[in-house]
Specification:
Chain A: This is Sugar ABC transporter permease. Chain A: Keywords: Cell membrane, Membrane, Transmembrane, Transmembrane helix, Transport. Chain A: It is found in: Cell membrane. Chain A: Its main location: membrane. The structure holds two protein chains of two kinds. Chain A is mostly helical. Helix content of chain A is 70%, strand content 3%. Chain A has a two-stranded antiparallel sheet with strand order 1-2. In chain A, a hairpin with a 2-residue loop joins strand 1 and strand 2. In chain A, helix 9 packs across helix 11. Chain B has a single domain, classed as MetI-like (MetI-like fold, Orthogonal Bundle). In chain B, helix 7 packs antiparallel against helix 10 and helix 8 crosses helix 9. The radius of gyration of chain B is 24 Å and the shape is globular. The two termini of chain B are 42 Å apart. Classes of the chains: A mainly alpha, B mainly alpha.
């Protein structure tokens, strides 16, 4: 060890960096960067053919059926994110503000709301698939039990309700996480700042509006960016519950399922082979959207960075 | 005072109603796991006739659940060991060793926080194929560990920078090599941060279905989430068994949370709040 150390001398940092750089470079940076290259070529199965320029992007954006599916999936992702964002920032913040007061039973409620987060999305998907089964699932039976039987319907089986059901199930699974993060953010705010506002005569609402929330803005931004990245890549829940074509009638198709289907073929259509070039173009487009929005979000966050 | 009391009653009623929304499906899952399929149809909401553990034993042995469980433990465990080693060494260099371009190295790692590795799945798939790692656990371990690097380096570097630099210098003057200073002095000090990194990474890896779905074909190599999907198709007529399998699949993380909730919460919120 001693000799190795002397030999490395001023290059010793290389020995410390090497394993991490190789691992991360080979299995993360290289594949992500090559996706860009893949999207510019024609592919026959997994074999690369001629240079295609931007033709794959043209196909995704302008040629049906790809363009139709792409726009549809994009719309679903936007709805997915918007609804999740609204639920998270209202309910998540509300519960975090409540749980900040240490009152009897609040520890239990906090744990209760968090528990679904520990379940795998596969379990969440199957659980709700069973609960929402139109024939004998618990949810419709419950509606009948409380006299709302006329509301009972095949929630996941009709295009009108399927996507919203899945978004709500996703929110059910995730809500505990933003509560936790908001709660941690609130606890990092020094008590004096809020007390000072109260002493100066601000009421509870004014203190919240003008002191607490602005101080919480960076945490809120961080939760929003993380939610955005996750929601643009959502896949599991739809795959488990509705299959890779996002049924019924593509009403729950997301960019994630669209990408998967294009890249690896679709079992529902008899397993046609994947289209690597077009799928890579979809991945690059997703990548660009995530990167652009995250970058913008971080720029905005830095503008609002507060010191306390 | 009276309106205050009324508010309190309303508040607790609301919180309880929400708790029912969050817990009832889970309670139903657990209770149903003890029932026979016949019982599920006859008496969907009632308590089971007997609380025998037999359905769990059946899932464990008959549905190769024990194999899936072992695979999950091995894959997440090995990925954690790999990412903890690589990330703590790299972070030590970035935070403590003077060298040119270390801001760039730091940025190189941080850039990955914003991009999920699944967007690179096609080249990754071909790479694994060329390395002959498809249908082995190594494909999962390398992918998980690599994708865990950005967040881990970010958390560990921040933590290492908050430690006094004199510790390393003192160790060096006392005759430690750089590796010894790292191994004997620094690593014990960053144990809390290593626990945080472990928790941040463990949860998504344990629950992941995406990469096993694409990398793993052999049944004996499947992890729990992927095993569950097979299981679901196979036993769709035996609802009782399905629910038992779901309960078994969920137990480890729920138990981890309940036992270690303080550390668990600290781990999950670490990156988001300071970031």
């Amino acid at each position: 060890m001693d000799m190795l150390d002397r030999w490395l001398g001023r290059r010793v940092h290389l020995a410390f960096l090497l394993p991490g750089v190789v691992l991360y470079g080979l299995f993360m940076v290289y594949p992500l960067a090559s996706s860009l290259g893949y999207s510019l070529f024609e592919w026959d199965g997994l074999v690369r053919e001629g240079f295609a320029g931007l033709r794959n992007f043209r196909t995704v954006l302008l040629e049906p059926p790809f363009s139709v599916r792409f726009v549809g999936a994009l719309k679903h992702n936007v709805l997915f994110f918007t609804m999740t964002f609204v639920i998270q920032s209202t309910l998540g913040l509300l519960f975090a503000l409540l749980f900040r007061q240490k009152r009897p039973g609040f520890g239990f409620f906090q744990a209760a709301y968090f528990l679904p987060y520990t379940l795998s999305l596969v379990v969440v998907g199957f659980l709700w698939l069973l609960l929402l089964n139109p024939l004998w699932g618990g949810f419709n039976q419950l509606l009948r039990l409380v006299g709302l039987g006329q509301w009972a319907q095949p929630w996941l089986g009709q295009p009108r309700t399927a996507l919203v059901s899945i978004i709500l199930i996703n929110a059910w699974r995730w809500l505990g996480f933003p509560i936790l993060v908001f709660l941690a953010g609130l606890q990092a705010i020094p008590a004096e700042m809020e007390e000072a506002a109260r002493v100066d005569g601000a009421n509870a609402w004014q203190t919240l509006r003008h002191v607490t929330l602005p101080l919480l803005a960076p945490v809120m931004g961080m939760v929003t960016i993380l939610t955005f990245i996750y929601d643009f890549n959502a896949f599991e829940l739809v795959f488990v519950m509705q299959g890779s074509s996002g049924g019924p009638a593509y009403s729950t198709d997301l960019l994630g399922t669209f990408f998967y289907r294009t890249a690896f073929g679709d079992s529902t259509t008899g397993g046609e082979p994947g289209q690597v070039g077009i799928a890579s173009a979809i991945a690059v487009l997703m990548f660009m959207m995530v990167a652009a929005v995250s970058w913008l979000g971080i720029r905005l966050l830095q503008g609002r960075q507060v010191e306390y | 005072m009276a309106t205050r009391r009324l508010w309190d009653v309303l508040l607790y009623a609301f919180l309880t109603a929400m708790a029912v929304v969050f817990l009832a499906p889970l309670a139903l899952m657990v209770v149903t796991a003890f029932k026979s399929t016949r019982e599920i149809f006859m008496n969907p909401f009632g308590l089971p006739a007997s609380w025998s553990l037999e359905p769990f034993a059946r899932v464990w042995s008959r549905a190769s659940f024990s194999v899936y469980f072992r695979n999950s433990v091995w894959v997440t465990g090995a990925s954690l060991a790999l990412v903890l080693t690589c990330a703590s060494m790299a972070s030590y260099a970035i935070a403590r060793l003077p060298f040119r371009g270390r801001d760039w190295v730091y940025l190189f790692f941080l850039a990955g926080i914003m991009v999920p590795v699944r967007l690179g799945i096609l080249p990754l798939f071909l790479l694994m194929k060329q390395l002959r790692l498809l249908d082995t656990h190594w494909a999962l371990i390398f992918t998980y560990a690599a994708s865990g690097m950005p967040m881990s380096v970010f958390l560990l570097t921040g933590f290492l920078r908050s430690l006094p630099g004199e510790l390393r210098e003192a160790a060096r003057i006392d005759g430690c090599t750089e590796f010894q200073a790292f191994w004997k002095v620094m690593l014990p000090l960053i144990r809390p941060a290593l626990a945080t990194v472990a928790i941040v990474n463990f949860v998504p890896w344990w629950n992941d279905m995406f990469f096993p779905l694409l990398f793993i074909q052999s049944d004996r190599l499947k992890t729990i989430p992927l095993g569950m999907t097979i299981f679901f198709g196979q036993y769709q007529t035996d609802w009782g068994l399905l629910f038992s399998g779901m309960v078994l699949a969920s137990l480890p993380l729920v138990a981890l949370y309940l036992v270690m909730s303080r550390q668990f919460i600290a781990g999950l919120t670490a990156g988001a709040v300071k970031g």
